[in-house]
Amino acid sequence: MPDLGKIRRWCVALLLPVVMLPLTTLPAGAAPGAERPVVNTDRGPVRGRSHGAYRTFEGIPFAAPPTGALRWRLPEPAPRWKGVRDAGAPGSRCVQLPVLAPGGPVGSEDCLFLNVTAPTGSGAREGLRPVMVWFHGGGFFSGAGDHYKPERLAVEGGAVVVTVNYRLGVFGLFGHQELGGAPGFALADQRAALRWVGANAERFGADPHNITVFGESAGALSVCAHLASPASAGLFHKAIMQSGSCSTTTPPRALLPGLGTYEPFVPERRTVADGALAAARLGCDRPTGVMDCLRRLDARTLATPELMQGFSLVSYGNSALPVEPRRALEAGRFHRVPVMQGTTRDEMRLFLAQTLAAHPIGDARAYRARLELSFGVPTARAVEAAYPASAHPTPAVAWATVLTDASFLCPTLRDGGALARHVPTYGYRFSDRDAPDFTGLPQAPGLPLGAAHGFELPYLFTLAPLSGPQRELADRMTGYWTEFARTGVPRAAQAPHWPRYRPAGPVLSLAPGAGGIRTVDARTEHHCALWDARWPGVTSSG
Question: 215-273, pLDDT tens digit by residue?
């Protein structure tokens, strides 16, 4: 019998568990045992590692440890240190639970570290380099910055890349009336990292006035929140969202009968009410001093599946995030910076594959039942007409296609139209259905993963081996991403022109091989007119 509890926790996260593969080769010019470069940051000098064509400085504290009395407080500056601090290895990851393996919490509350990867020397491009600050995915309750190795972006793209840890789950997104609401400590940590980058970028050869924030899944949702947050004004100059938009959501019962609608942004009052209930269950139900009581609890007591998952949603309706982000975009209430955003072609196959054994879709009748369960009968009929089971290899593929278009592709395109009214906007769809599966998750019969959620990441980071044509695509994507960071316009050598997005305009489809990079009419191909018309029914039927 499948472990439905584990499946439910995993599915509701909308995350990508990253499986790092060991590096077997070093970039050109790298030499083991090379010098240990030293950079003097604003808190003290750090000693990194040289890898020939690039340098790394890992485990740099960008804020004070949020422990003891600082638990559930906004990040404070990291203390200065004497002497040279070793930055040759990543710092502790933030407290989290293994997503797919048994066991208790791992990581530490003392986890506010970042990692810098910088090209060696001036290279082909003179002057200060662009900075790219990466916010990892993981459903806001899993993941770490050091999972991602960005040497391709640094060496081939000439960017300085910073990967960031931030508080997760109940430690990062808890709310209570004694806190004045739900301050969003996870996003505040990210802002603290951006302030650190602004203060220190030039010391690593980068331009503090040319900072791009980018992220995937929960990292992309973070970028969306910063676009809409007055508190993030001036901290970045460009934004990239990968497989997560301000309008991302999934319909109720999409993956399992017991799952409700997934909406990553929730009203602050809901988080505060949940915080009061959690405090009572933890024995801290009292007239005053609730937070003092909670701060005395051991981290292991707090890092339960219920609390880590229950407080993995970003609150709005406060000074940091006044308006629900998708509404902010619609109203034009966001920072005026160029934006690049996109999805993979088969986002939801990765999640659906983990639930089919427990909740199979064996035939067209089961497919129709799933449609009616999630959308109600009238919408289900319209959706089935646009997505007949007979037009897909299996009913499971048909259902995954419906969920991908409804949850990711069309909401992202709709946000693109709102953004494009005010700022340069570029849309993409990652379409390599032979992309390497580096997750280690079991395959589901009748549901090939294709271009699933997160499968574009090995084309930007060192995560999995690529074929020759895929390496060529990775070169083009690296060029697009880093040139966007440099200039605000995605360009790549020997690659097609990437047109700006218009409300009904094309996006760039990214796939290997001759003609693999081309513009497509994604709104028509993914039935977005249907989803735009039916979306209110989706979100209100949970």
Answer: 999 999 999 999 999 999 999 999 999 999 999 999 999 999 989 999 999 999 999 99
Question: Which helix H or strand E contains 476, and what residues bound it?
Answer: helix 468-487
Give which of 248, 239, 414 is closest to 341, Cα–Cα.
239
217 is annotated as an active-site residue: yes
Residue that is written with structure tokens 């259902």 in the block: 399
Cβ burial of 160 (10 Å; 0-12, 13-18, 19+) is buried
For the chain, the distance separating the N- and C-terminal CA atoms, rounded to the nearest angstrom, is 27
Whole-number Cα distances in Å, 522 to 180, 222, 396, 410, 426: 43, 25, 22, 8, 13
Tokens of 266: 């929730």
- Which residue among the candidates 216, 324, 330, 347 is catalytic per the annotation? 347
Give CA–CA dist 112/99, Å, rounded. Answer: 21
Kindly report whether the global pTM for this prediction surpasses the value 0.70: yes
One-letter identity of residue 307: L
141 touches 312 (CB < 8 A): yes
381 vs 375: CA distance, rounded Å: 9
Is residue 347 part of the annotated active site? The answer reads: yes
Q: What is the largest distance, in Å, between two alpha-carbon atoms of the chain? A: 69
For residue 423, give every residue at least 6 positions away whose Cβ sits within 8 Å of its Cβ, in sequence order, or none.
336, 337, 338, 339
Catalytic option among 217, 245, 247, 407: 217
Whether 170 contacts 308, CB under 8 Å = yes
Q: Which of 136, 226, 453, 526 is catalytic?
A: 453
Residue of 85, 222, 97 lying closest to 164 (CA atoms): 222
Amino acid symbol at 488: G
- What confidence tens digit (pLDDT) does each residue in 291-323 have? 999 999 999 999 999 999 999 999 999 999 999
Q: What is the rounded CA–CA span in Å between residue 455 and residue 436?
A: 7
Three-state DSSP state, 429: strand
The radius of gyration computed from the CA coordinates of the chain, to the nearest angstrom, equals 22
